Amino acid sequence: MATTSAIILPCLFLIAGGQNNHDWLSWGNEAILPPHSSILEKIDTKPTLLVSGGRGNPTQPSSIAAFNLPQMAIAEDAVIKIVEDIKHGLRYLFQTNNSNTLAIVGTGSLGIETVLDNLVEPGDTVLILLNGMWADRVKEIVTRLRIPIPMMKPPGSIFTMEEVELEIRSKKPKIVYAVNGESSAGVFQKVDFIGDLCHKHGCITVLDVIHIVGIQPFFMDKWKMDVVVCNTQKGIGAPVGKAPMSFSSRAVEKMTNRTTTPHTLLNDFQSWQKYNYWRLDATRPYFTHHSVPILLMYTLREGLALLSRDGLISSWKKHAESNLYLRKRLLEEFPFLTDTVTEPKNRLVGVVMLSFPNYLNSTEIRTHLIEKHNVDVNNGFGPSVGKVIRFALLGANANFEVADKLVNVMKETFAHFNVSSSPKT
Amino acid sequence: MATTSAIILPCLFLIAGGQNNHDWLSWGNEAILPPHSSILEKIDTKPTLLVSGGRGNPTQPSSIAAFNLPQMAIAEDAVIKIVEDIKHGLRYLFQTNNSNTLAIVGTGSLGIETVLDNLVEPGDTVLILLNGMWADRVKEIVTRLRIPIPMMKPPGSIFTMEEVELEIRSKKPKIVYAVNGESSAGVFQKVDFIGDLCHKHGCITVLDVIHIVGIQPFFMDKWKMDVVVCNTQKGIGAPVGKAPMSFSSRAVEKMTNRTTTPHTLLNDFQSWQKYNYWRLDATRPYFTHHSVPILLMYTLREGLALLSRDGLISSWKKHAESNLYLRKRLLEEFPFLTDTVTEPKNRLVGVVMLSFPNYLNSTEIRTHLIEKHNVDVNNGFGPSVGKVIRFALLGANANFEVADKLVNVMKETFAHFNVSSSPKT
């Protein structure tokens, strides 16, 4: 060190900027706003059973383990293979052959904003099948871009083919947006007819498949879907932080032929094509235009690898069986609970949503479950807060053991609130 | 299982949507597009010394370790403490008392887009101190929002107070955007005078401090900066995936009084205020409007905790000493290398950028370094590709051992390319 200090000291006060002639190496702490004592403490977290479907989702252990793999530079062959593997895994998840399949950095919500910003141009009309909170948010996203013409229905509604075709004929939208699994209302919107309608009437289908893919049957190509968006932490079982998406050639054509730029530069589809970070053209050089979240890439790759090894049918089966088993056991044990979504065909596979009688408040019950049992359930959104209880057995938690555990903690919980759990008569 | 199958089977074909009356539980794999064989293989990564400053950055071991902590639900007290701790840590990092300090999900680039989308309204003028690749990208971001009036200078230039004041007087901008550390050109732009100028002329300073904070002295409040944005993987030493930022009361006032909405809903400052996810108002209920990347939150908290425990002066010292030591040793050992940034006061602390004579090609050298030594360096951006070599000793790599190792691998590398390394005469 003695040999270098002569070099260091004269340079440092020049480099320090705004601190001319001030040798800050000799400063005491008095020149600095001190750190808060709270962050000097040890981090304190505890295991929680995540079955709310929204507030948090369990990550598959093999996906978490990938965080501990060595970090590499982004342009190495092993990393390019990971990029390709993620694309393979997503194509399998979505059941598509689209080469334009990738995952941006961000949450599912950012993915949805990004897709719409890329697809919608001034003058376009967007038809939204508004069936709950998530579609309502899309209405707001589109409003910030252009003027939408949403279809208005109460939360929990389902659209028929006839209704959608009527709206397409009269509103002539360029984009039809649907939420396949409206998790806030617990409802499943059948979408396989929308692709044909959109092909017939020259519009692009955009689909939120966040609570669907990996959980229940979905076929992007067979159903002629143009754009699908999801997140990483539900059916895939990877941590939050990437938004997977896939584009049909019809969608790519619309984005490539647009005459205005999207508002985003980072997530402009044409930037992705230009920099080729997702190897949309595998014959061109690989280049990135942002810092790659390499550890999140590893974990996403491992989540998709697990799904690919186990197989989609096995994953759909596991989610269907465990969630149906939980619903059946809860309804048998607690006769005062009722199905929130009355029509079985309108229920999402990956959600068990039950309504409470007026004398129970699910917000209090939720608090008891988290405080006494470290079990995180959902107690409704907006108008349903306090009136429903929502479980979601996803990924690592989609099994009978977790279902049985939940029935047992509910027994203790209802007893705690002095609610009878005698069998239905 | 026997007791539940009677329930499951009749429901499933209804739920499956588009597969009416098709019992997909009995499907063979022929109905499904199969997974690609590549993703069924084991993931294959190897340790790499990340000293490029851009292609990848080392994560501090204590930050990585946080990925393995138990996942919790987002509204629990322990998680709210983590949110508060991150804010404390960022305030210390930025040297500010701003309550409006937070970190969105995404990369630094998304942070910059988000800040501009929130701040700029139709009719505003944005003055960009364009001194390299990163500012050039901001010119494009602002163009996608409104029309900017950038100051044009060749990459690597530095702006004086007189120049900036002249531009402010003539262009009357609402926003002045500067890149404090232009890593692509290796230059440091002094910014402490910009705050006073902006206060005097009624404009808002927005500063990219990505390659600065945690690496060399920076004082948000003392220098009267209005908005700063960074990423998590340089001075903090946490994984990529969050974009920290802080807003002065002047910036908050501009965002709160705007009459139009930003293009983003997810990252609208007013959404953050409304949902209170970052507890911008600690007296109001805590609510989130997106899936929280809880594991990234843990790692960011731990990166900031390490910085808070060690202290900023220690971190600045470590970065200055190790990078200066590396520069000195490289210039001594390899007399054919020269400083790319000639003026010492214009050099960034966290970058060692050296130019090559014509007979050497740094792209070939970079390839040799990664293939033979697993060392990732940078070989320039745009016009400088192949002409420079750029090292960045950041975070866990900011020490003399890594510097010495790099000198040794460069000795082997130059010998491999038959370049003399005799002492300077």
UniProtKB/TrEMBL annotation, chains A, B:
GO MF terms, alphabetically ordered: alanine-glyoxylate transaminase activity; L-serine-pyruvate transaminase activity
Q: Which cofactor does it need?
A: pyridoxal 5'-phosphate
Q: Name one GO cellular component term.
A: peroxisome
Answer whether the UniProt record assigns the keyword Transferase to this protein: yes
Q: InterPro entries, per this entry? A: Aminotrans_V_dom (IPR000192), PyrdxlP-dep_Trfase (IPR015424), PyrdxlP-dep_Trfase_major (IPR015421), PyrdxlP-dep_Trfase_small (IPR015422), SP_NH2Trfase/AEP_transaminase (IPR024169)
What reaction does this enzyme carry out catalytically?
glyoxylate + L-alanine = glycine + pyruvate
- The residue range of the signal peptide is 1-18
Q: Which residues carry this modification: N6-(pyridoxal phosphate)lysine?
A: K234
Annotated Aminotransferase class V domain residues = 78-380
Residues reported in the UniProt entry to bind substrate: R390
Membrane-spanning parts: none
Give the EC number(s) listed in the UniProt record: 2.6.1.44
* Alphabetical keyword list: Aminotransferase, Pyridoxal phosphate, Pyruvate, Signal, Transferase
- Annotated GO biological process: glycine biosynthetic process, by transamination of glyoxylate
Presence of keyword Signal: yes
> What Gene3D superfamilies does the record point to?
Aspartate Aminotransferase, domain 1, Type I PLP-dependent aspartate aminotransferase-like (Major domain)
Which PANTHER family is this protein grouped with? Answer: ALANINE--GLYOXYLATE AMINOTRANSFERASE, AMINOTRANSFERASE CLASS V
Provide the family line: Belongs to the class-V pyridoxal-phosphate-dependent aminotransferase family.
User: This protein is called what?
Assistant: Alanine--glyoxylate aminotransferase
Q: Which organism is it from?
A: Folsomia candida
